[in-house]
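sry for the spam today, last one i promise. struct tokens for design, 77 residues
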């Protein structure tokens, strides 16, 4: 998991490197917040867990990724 931390508005956005059936998939999030709308979701929320995501397929630096916009787009198992 890589978390953006460069002093900009995207600080807290994450890139999750996931594996599905032996294929590596990158999932990029916006800054995500807990249900209270104030607490930022951190790497610990996702680390080592299985997730399902709903997002759009995007390209960054020539590589495909799934872009996730809000916390409800990710189901953690």
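last one done:
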């Amino acid at each position: 998991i890589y978390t953006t931390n460069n002093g900009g508005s995207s600080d807290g956005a994450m890139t999750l490197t996931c594996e599905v059936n032996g294929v590596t998939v990158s999932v990029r999030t916006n800054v995500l917040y807990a249900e209270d709308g104030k607490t930022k979701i951190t790497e610990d929320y996702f680390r080592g867990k299985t997730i399902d995501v709903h997002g759009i397929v995007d390209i960054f630096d020539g590589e495909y990724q799934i872009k996730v916009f809000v916390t409800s787009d990710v189901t953690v198992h």
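The chain has no helices and seven strands. ok im logging off now
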